[in-house]
Amino acid sequence: MYAKKDGDNMANQPVHVNINQEIQDWKDARYGRQVRAANVSALNKLQDQTNASVDYVVEKGEAVDQAAKDVQTVRQEAQGAVDHANDITAEYKQYADDKLAATEQERQAAQTARTGSEAAATLAESWAVGGTGARPGEDGNNSKYFSDQSKADADRAKEEADRAAQYASIVPPTFHIDFTTMELIQDTQGSGITFTLDENKVLSFDYVV
Questions:
Q1: Are 17 and 49 in contact (CB under 8 A)?
Q2: DSSP code, position 141
Q3: Terminal-residue alpha carbon distance, the chain
Q4: Phi, psi for 193 (deg, rounded to 5)
Q5: Which terminal residue of the chain, N or C, has fewer Cβ atoms less than 10 Å from its own Cβ?
């Protein structure tokens, strides 16, 4: 028999109804009131258990519905967490892609700058000393070439100047011819140059350094 006390929060689980005593009372009844009493007792037990079963089923159904709602809520929350994680993952992936693209641009810019610097350095070396193959005729058209040419010209100019100075210091000797003997006679020695008259009467000279 089911009996729910005041303050109970959950319906008791239904049990099998035992109305054997009421049946026996009904069999033993001699008077109408005894029969009615047995019937009332049996019907009360049946009614109480039926109500208990209904309450139990309803409560279990509500519990199942609540559990289903809880499962749906958890599922929605889990899906929300997954969606949020996917959003974050997508954001970080986009950030990583953007960062990678920016890094690649910086690398390319650095490579371009490096290539330009190397080309400028090669060109500067070409104009300075040549030997790089960067310009046609660079070995005859560079600073070192013109510097060497200038030095060679300066050396030649110095040699010419020294020679000119040497020539300027030369004082030629004086000669006369003895017409009696028809010999060439040296009167003065001079300086910076020496004349020699050999036995064959060949006149030669040499500079005195």
A1: yes
A2: S
A3: 153
A4: -155, 140
A5: C
The per-residue pLDDT for range 136-156, each reduced to its tens digit, is 887 878 888 888 888 888 888
* CB crowding 65-97: b at 16 or more within 10 Å, else e: eeeeeeeeeeeeeeeeeeeeeeeeeeeeeeeee
Measured distance CA(46)–CA(29) in Å, rounded: 20
Question: And the tokens for 73?
Answer: 């809520």
Mean pLDDT of 92-103: 87
Quote the pLDDT of residue 125: 83
Residues whose CB is less than 8 angstroms from the CB of residue 91 and which lie 6 or more positions away in sequence, other chains included: none
The least confident of 23-27, 65-69, 124-128 is: 23-27
Q: What count of other Cβ atoms lies within 10 Å of the Cβ of residue 56?
A: 16
Nearest to 126 by CA among 141, 147, 146: 141
For 73-82, what is each residue's pLDDT tens digit? 888 888 888 8
% of the chain residues with pLDDT over 70: 88
Stronger pLDDT, 30 or 91, i.e. the higher one? 91
Q: What share of the chain is helix, strand, coil (3-state, %, to 5)?
A: 65, 10, 25
Beta bridge partners of 207: 193
Q: Are 184 and 198 in contact (CB under 8 A)?
A: no
Residues 173 and 195: beta-carbon distance below 8 Å: yes
Q: Where are the beta strands (DSSP E) in the chain?
A: 175-178, 183-186, 193-197, 203-207
